User: Fold this.
Amino acid sequence: MTDTILEVKNLKKYFKTRRGMLHAVDNVSFKLERGKTLGIVGESGCGKSTTGRCILRLIEPTSGEILFNGENVINKSKKEMRLLRQKMQIIFQDPFSSLNPSKTVMEAISEPIIYHRLITDKLLVEKRVRELMEIVGLAERLINSYPHELDGGRRQRVGIAKALAMNPEFIVCDEPVSALDVSIQAQILNLLKNLQKQMGLSFIFITHDLSVVNYFSDDIAVMYLGQMVEKAPAEELFANPSHPYTKALLSAIPQMDIDHPMERILLKGEITSPIDPPDMCRFQKRCYWDCAECCKNEKDPELIEISPDHFVACPHIKDYS
Amino acid sequence: MEEKKEYVVEVEDLTVYYELEKETVKAVNGISFKLEKGRTLGFVGETGSGKTTTALSLLHLVPDPPGVIKSGKVNVCGHDMLALKPHQLTKVRGKDISMIFQDPMTSLDPVFPVVDQIMEAIMLHEDVNKSEAYQKAIKMLELVGIPEERAHEYPHQFSGGMKQRVVISIALACNPQVLIADEPTTALDVTIQAQVLDLMKNLRKQYGTSMIMITHDLGIIAEVCDEVAVIYAGSIVEKGTVREIFKHTRHPYTEGLFNSVPDVKNRGRELTPIPGLMPDPTNLPAGCAFAERCSYATDACKTNKPSEHREGDHVFFCSAYDDPGFAIKRKDS
Assistant:
């Protein structure tokens, strides 16, 4: 039997703008098994971060269900939510803006512990902070340093220690390595992978970097303008990308293999506005398949299973695979 | 017999410091390289390794103060850039050598329509009147895929990828012989990045522009460059053709870079990060700057400057190769 830690059903988040409703996340559903990682990839504005934030209710979803350990997060009161957030945490992209510049490492990491009154004894709090620092690989001498004295990699380690302080079961990692240099990026990715193994953490890993998501995730969901267009186990997705957008996206990654350059699919056409989009495929205007024209008269496609666990939102997928 | 090569950029022993009140940041420490006409040279390295400072020195644009060019020679298309007077520099910049910066928003002026900004560059360098300049500007925009209807729009009305196209069209407006691109696609999404890189490759083919591409992405290097210089702590540690660097890696730092990036085609491979951090540029070690993080380093590496080794045009600076039997773990392929 599978043990589902998180299930998101028909999640929608619309933002009111002067020009109409902006559909940031539109009918997104997925499941995450305990101890696994779901990668969400997409380009800027596809709604991947909004999805992550809605799950923690850092942004209130417009509609939908978020079942965390079987409980619907949406109906929780503020007080209940506070308790629940101990189990669900988030790591942000830019560790510089997510850390308070006037607080030391000690103060930053101990903040959630004190706020949730997990430990009240001051000495024990410090002991716990030192323990967390060791887990994330921060030297003890840095305990009284301020964020500006730390480099990006160390700052991100503080962010991770902060998230781990509550012994969470589930962490949303929102572009955790995008701001870091490659050699440091690998350090943080390995750290997160080890923590997952040791603590049985479940991750949602949000990123625009396809090689990172491939390395890190068990399953990958590809988002385009608020919708999920393809979802599959990581290996399957990279071996058989099926949605025309996924194909273009994967072909766009600069390849290090100089002997076998990939054929590139260049996308043309304008991007459909996410404000009050019509009920049709949102990728239609940039689609390069011959049948793109007929999609103009068709409704917004739903995800269909083309092989076990491989879902694609394109009605013409059969003709092309 | 050696072929006679034509170089558009020659840099010799360039050293640039930023002299602050309390400390001196040693940004570039004796870099030498040459760029052959029509070729693309990639600079790869991490934040703070001195890639951008090197590029700025080529245009004599290092902010002074605090930047001081301590020593070295910079020759661009026959001009001794470091000796030129400001009014002479204005004539060289944009005409012989241009630069594209990472963030297109900060390199465009928000209060002028984009076409005016291209015309400005053209009118500065060419003896044309306003309407001729306008015609040329429109042609440049079309070249980068922006229709005339949008020429009168302001930068904020363009998306990131479109803005970068405008910046490219300004940089290319006067047909420079050398184009420096400093992380031109870092701020862009991958599908847009693919479009911009494709555009740059086409323009290079069409005009034979020589290019210096600064990036931290080894994939981009593999795709657009002919030669690569790997920069670490203000020095070139390894230099050669893309094939030599990727297939016959020699320097331990370059090896570390390859081991740090996830490979799309081989997802099972473990990442091996480079331990530690780049040394503080205000306090560089006496010996090899990479010794602290290098798994092959000996005590001698920490005190002695790395020695230079060559395999044809492939140059690398690492004392470990003083032992003729030495080889790094990464295999040649």
About this structure: Chain B has a mean pLDDT of 89. Chain B is about 30% helix and 25% strand.
